[in-house]
Specification:
About 80% of the residues lie in helices and about 0% in strands. With about 425 residues, the protein is an all-alpha fold. It has a two-stranded antiparallel sheet with strand order 1-2. The longest helix has about 40 residues. Keywords: Membrane, Transmembrane, Transmembrane helix. It holds the Pfam family MFS_4. InterPro entries: MFS_4, MFS_dom, MFS_trans_sf.
């Protein structure tokens, strides 16, 4: 089936997949993960949590995410991407609703671990769908539109959570978790209705004009071996992204409240600005990576991240504004480029497993990052040290990206 627009021209169902994927990421990552930074100040005060325990809650979520990544490929093969995504979203919504009833640290940690499991079960199969529904020349753009759902969720949380807290006192975070969980369950039903595992189910071909390498050519086994080494290279770069961006996403609002003495409502508006800018992050850098290549795209992005983290560690509101603007405009660029890159290297049939594989690296970085940052902030009394450490790591990531071969170059090296 094709969807018709008013001019009578058919719109490829891939764009329905893209828009539905945007809603899925709005729920499973945008609400399930990036709401935490806004909820932590009031939740921490209510439950008497120090910085170290706040960091462990975030780490627990990423540990759950990484656990799901280990089984996401198998679950997708057994259930199909659509059912796996719906199952993950249901777990996200249900666990967030239960967090609203928690009265101590340990239940929050356990339930937020479950939220991470659901996020992984939803996200990994979804990003694998990009390689099935879109060919190489449109993959980056499509993935970018999907991940803009994260930015929309940040806008929502940055405005909604402070409003709830003002009306509910110190326990407003409970209402926040309830509402966010309910929205996630609504998106679960939307995904179950609209998603499809492959264009064949609609009698269609993938959208685009440029495909990946042939599935079977002389020397393909050797080429696949080199491609797998390049995927490991991508994984290491993704680890550095995961270890750094999550520190900023988890603690920048807490830093604004504690170190810069902003009110929670003002900090929330700043976080909403991050979300507003980030809506353009995925589509912009996805399009640039389609045009300029994944390698150059990643180098540019990591250099911008480095500047953003250095600015976050410097005193003065001007540097803070610059940090927020830079972080917002690049934050979803790396997941966008990575989801397109694995299809370039491994082809659409292996894209889900390849994306799941590099997400293990990503998850490891997310597990370590908040715990180390929380411990370092507790030891030093502020977040300047953690932000500077993030800057050093993203500078290393830019260097590693510069060493990454293009898929065509990898193929030539294998044939020589």
């Amino acid at each position: 089936m094709r969807i018709l627009v008013s001019a009578g021209r058919p719109v490829h169902y891939g764009w329905v997949i893209c828009l539905t994927g945007c809603a899925v990421l709005f729920a499973c990552l945008g609400l399930g993960r990036f709401s935490l930074g806004m909820l932590l100040p009031s939740m921490g005060a209510s439950l008497h949590l120090d910085y170290a325990r706040m960091g462990l809650i975030s780490t627990g979520n990423f540990a759950g995410y990484m656990s799901a990544v280990l089984v996401a490929g198998t679950a997708t093969q057994s259930l199909g991407a659509r059912r796996a995504i719906a199952l993950g979203l249901a777990l996200v919504g249900g666990s967030m609703i239960l967090i609203a009833r928690c009265t101590s640290f340990v239940p929050v940690l356990v339930l937020y671990f479950a939220t991470g499991v659901g996020s992984g079960l939803a996200n990994v199969p979804l990003m694998g769908l990009v390689s099935h529904w879109f060919l190489r020349d449109t993959r980056g753009r499509a993935a970018g539109f999907m991940v803009s759902g994260n930015g929309l969720a940040i806008i929502f949380c940055g405005l909604f959570i402070p409003w709830v807290n003002q009306g509910s006192g110190g326990e407003g975070w409970r209402t926040g978790w309830l509402v966010l969980g309910g929205i996630s369950l609504a998106v679960t039903m939307l995904a179950a209705i609209l998603l499809r595992n492959h264009p064949r189910e609609k009698g269609l071909e993938p959208l685009g004009t440029g495909g990946g390498p042939p599935a079977s050519v002389p020397g393909a086994g050797k080429r696949a071996g080199v491609a797998r080494r390049d995927v490991v290279h991508l994984g290491v770069i993704y680890l550095l992204f995961g270890a750094t961006y999550v520190v900023y996403a988890t603690f920048i609002v807490t830093s604004m409240v504690d170190a810069h003495h902003f009110g929670e409502d003002v900090a929330g508006r700043f976080w909403a600005v991050v979300g507003g800018l980030s809506v353009f992050s995925g589509p912009l850098f996805g399009w640039l990576s389609d045009r300029l290549g994944r390698r150059l795209g990643m180098i540019a992005v990591f250099l911008l991240f480095t500047v953003a983290y250095v600015f976050a560690a410097l005193s003065g509101t001007g540097f803070l504004y610059g940090s927020i603007a830079l972080f917002g405009i690049v934050v979803w660029s790396i997941p966008t480029i990575m989801s397109a890159a694995v299809g370039d290297y491994m082809g659409p049939e292996q894209a889900v497993r390849a994306f799941g594989f590099i997400t293990l690296f990503f998850g490891a970085g997310q597990i370590v990052g908040p715990a180390v940052a929380g411990w370092l902030a507790e030891a030093t009394g502020d977040f300047n040290g953690p932000f500077l450490l993030c800057a050093a790591l993203t500078a290393c990531a830019a260097g590693l990206a510069a060493l990454l071969k293009k898929p065509a170059e990898a193929g030539r090296a294998m044939g020589s």
